[in-house]
Design brief:
Blueprint (H helix, E strand, L loop, with lengths): L14 E2 L2 E2 L4 E3 L5 E7 H10 L13 E6 H4 L3 E2 L6 H10 L1 H4 L15 E2 L14 E6 L3 E5 L4 E5 L5 E6 L7
Length: 170
C-alpha cells in the first residue's frame, strides 16, 4: 500500500503504521491504539462540543459525517463529524472508508469504555457502503437503536451526499 500523505492539519496526531490515529480512537491500557474502537468519553465530547473525530479540534459548519446506508436512512450518525479536510484524509487512509476492508474486525474491542458497536452487531460481518454527508448542523441525541449518543441531522441541514468507494469483495 502506498504511503498516504498526512495533511498539515493532522500532523499533531499520533500515527500507527503511517496512519493518523483519529482523536476518538480507543487507547488501550498498555498504550496501543485500537483502530475501529471508539473511546466512549471522547465520542460524547465530540458530539456535544462539536469536536472533529479525526483531529480533535473544535468545528464549525460545514460538518462532514461518514455514514452507512442504514444510518443515512435515519439521518442519524453514530460517529461524530469531521472537518472537510479531515474527511478527505479519512476516506483515503481508513481501510473501512477507503473500501479496502471486506469485513469488520471479528474480535471484541478489549475495553469496556469502547463505543461504536457496543453490542458487537458488526463483528465479522461484511463491510458496508459508506457515504459522506455535508451538513450545516446537527443535534446530539440518544440513539435508542444503538444505545449510544449520536448526531441527528435534519433534512434541511443536509447539503450534499457522496458515495465513497464501495467495499472490496472477499
Amino acid at each position: 500500500m502506498p504511503e498516504i500523505p498526512i495533511p498539515v492539519t493532522l500532523r499533531h496526531r499520533p500515527t500507527v503504521g503511517g496512519l493518523v490515529v483519529p482523536w476518538i480512537t480507543m487507547q488501550m491500557p498498555d498504550g496501543r491504539h485500537r483502530f475501529g474502537a471508539i473511546d466512549a468519553e471522547r465520542l460524547l465530547a465530540a458530539l456535544t462540543d462539536r469536536i472533529c473525530q479525526t483531529c480533535g479540534y473544535e468545528m464549525s459548519p460545514p460538518f462532514v459525517f461518514a455514514m452507512r446506508d442504514v444510518d443515512l436512512s435515519r439521518l442519524i450518525s453514530t460517529e461524530p463529524a469531521m472537518h472537510p479536510e479531515c474527511a478527505r484524509y479519512s476516506v483515503t487512509a481508513c481501510p473501512m472508508l477507503a473500501g479496502t476492508m471486506t469485513r469488520y474486525r471479528a474480535q471484541p474491542p478489549d475495553a469496556s469504555a469502547s463505543a461504536g458497536d457496543p453490542a458487537g452487531a458488526r463483528s465479522g460481518h461484511a463491510a458496508q457502503v459508506w457515504r459522506l454527508l455535508w451538513t450545516s448542523g446537527y443535534r446530539r441525541i440518544w440513539d435508542h437503536r444503538t444505545h449510544t449518543p449520536a448526531a441527528q441531522i435534519l433534512i434541511t441541514q443536509l447539503h450534499r451526499v457522496q458515495q465513497i468507494k464501495p467495499p472490496a469483495t472477499d
